[in-house]
Amino acid sequence: MRHRDLPPLAAIRVFEAAARHASFTRAAEELGMTQAAVSYQIKLLEERLGAPLFLRRPRTVELTPTGRQLAPATSEALDLLASAFAAARKDAGSVLTVSVLPTFAAHWLAPRMGRFQMKHPEIAVRITATRAVVDFRREDADVAIRSGLGEWEGLTVHPLFPVAFAPMLSPKLLERHGPLTSPADLLDMLLIDPGDRWWCLWFAAMGIEGFEPAGHPDARMGDQHLEARAAMGGHGVAILTPGFYRQEVEIGLLAQPFPAISETGQNYFLVYPAARRNVPKVRAFRDWLLDELEADEQTRDKA
């Protein structure tokens, strides 16, 4: 491992300012320090170096040959560090990384991201679609969209909308099967992922007893948006979040024959570390997302 024998950065900053101004007093004014603190830092640096850097005159200071040798390199190094930090800060401030559930990403967020980009062209959005719960302390994510009860310590939490679910199927499959007059009629159809706990919750809410997942073929897709694709292809009935598939219902790819329910307390949430609440890119995304939800609510109210 490479080892650098470097002096303290604080002392280097003081030396660079004093050398540039040829004055401990003016260096102290620039750095917001006392003249005594500047003298102390210079002394530390000279002891570390083993040679004087300044000749102290009654009203001024003058660089020694050693000081003159060190001063240009010090200024150049600090300029390079400042430029690199500014570039990194600009890049970090212009890229927003969103960790989001795959179905939410595909059916709610992605179709709307163009509006965010037009409103904030200075912010590039990187979407990471995953079911894993992001660890903000160790992973590269600025905000996340999660489902659950909203009990995440240390995070600012904004409820978005309930986790609602209902059976949905292709209108063509419905036509082939015939009218569904009761939720119990679904028990005679192929259910996509019958082991999904949403099926048990939904049948129970509809007052249907005797639903046994093991009594149905184990048609499992692993994620809601894949189950939706299978349902649209007429391969069975999926239990889906209707809010994600309004467009598919409108254009006749899916039908929702019975009402949706939501599990008590379960919502989709926008979350981020509390310390980031005033970061401009996080604030911009939060405000835009909440405005989108409000617009959706107004559209539903008018429908």
UniProtKB/TrEMBL annotation:
Gene3D superfamilies the record matches: Periplasmic binding protein-like II, Winged helix-like DNA-binding domain superfamily/Winged helix DNA-binding domain
HTH lysR-type domain sequence ranges: 7-64
GO-annotated molecular function: DNA-binding transcription factor activity; sequence-specific DNA binding
BP-aspect Gene Ontology terms: DNA-templated transcription
Any single Pfam family the record assigns to this protein: LysR_substrate
PROSITE patterns referenced in this protein's UniProt entry, alphabetically: HTH_LYSR
Keyword presence, DNA-binding: yes
Record keywords: DNA-binding, Transcription, Transcription regulation
Signal peptide stretch: none
Domain of life the protein comes from: Bacteria
Annotated family: Belongs to the LysR transcriptional regulatory family.
Protein name as it appears in the record: Transcriptional regulator GcvA
Organism: Jiella endophytica
